[in-house]
Amino acid sequence: LKRNRISEVVVCGLALDFCVGNTALDAVRLGFKVTVIEETTKGVNHRVAIDDLQIEIEWGSIRKLQEIYPQ
Predict the structure, then answer these.
(1) In what order do the strands lie in the sheet with 8-14?
(2) pTM summary value
(3) Backbone angles phi, psi at 61, to 5 degrees
């Protein structure tokens, strides 16, 4: 991605508390700006998944789509 000058990733899909969440966190660690489309993802244990990502969201590392494009 970096070789192609991609600096931001948008993540959605299943499951938020596994694949999606880990992808988002890995992307942050690698220096990408990350947006999670919460409405298009669901966790196996959705509440735990959202709580885990909330720390990164509060730090500003991960954004939710509605924060960028409010309804």
Answers:
(1) 8-14, 33-42, 62-64
(2) 0.72
(3) -75, -35
